[in-house]
Amino acid sequence: MHIQKFIYFAQELLGLPLNYDFILYQRGPYSFDLDTEIRSLRSIGAVEIRPRPPYGPSYSSTGLGEVISRLSAVDGETDDRLTALAKELGPKQAKDLELLATTLYVLKEGHQPDPDVVKRVLSLKPQFPKDEAEKALQEVRELEARFK
After folding, report:
1. CA 49 centroid distance within chain
2. Closest among 18, 53, 24, 56 to 37, alpha carbons compared
3. CA dihedral 58, 62, 12, 79 (to 10 degrees)
């Protein structure tokens, strides 16, 4: 979940030309192409999965993954922005990322007044209370301002 949501935010907030198509899926924006690439990295031994009960698997880079990373390095400013974004999103729980990413997705659908954004998010994610949806909208707005 964290990888999917981080890449979604990096693409949408930072404007990185990653060209993944995201759809609204069970837990918010999801890219099947990204999932395929992660699986490919795992199959060639560039990424490994380690269990982390009760939270689910954790992905880590192998020696081969480090080499690939160095070959495809980004410029210093982009690296700094990605690091800052990772610090914002990394500590969040999966449910919080689901709500934040869904809120960003709704915002990217078109210009809507904030109350309509909250209503749309709640129609997609009725398990969240209204105050959490409003807080998520405020947080996404702050992230947008910070990462412009």
Report:
1. 19
2. 18
3. 120
> Residue 40 burial by CB count (10 A; 0-12/13-18/19+): exposed, middle or buried?
exposed
Strand partners of residue 48: 60
Residue owning tokens 């709704």: 106
Residue 50 belongs to what H/E stretch? strand 47-50
Contact (Cβ atoms closer than 8 angstroms) between residue 47 and residue 68: no
Tokens in use for 30?
Answer: 């999801």
Scan for tokens 């080499």, then name that residue.
67
Task: Report yes or no on whether pTM surpasses 0.70.
Answer: yes
User: Which candidate, 69, 70, 102, 97, places its Cα nearest to that of 85?
Assistant: 97
Q: Residue 57 — very low, low, confident or very high, per pLDDT cuts 50/70/90?
A: confident
* Residue whose token pair is 């301002």: 145
122 within 8 A of 128, measured Cβ to Cβ: yes
pLDDT > 80? residue 69: no
- What's the pLDDT at 65? 66
Rounded CA-CA distance 50/78 in Å is 28
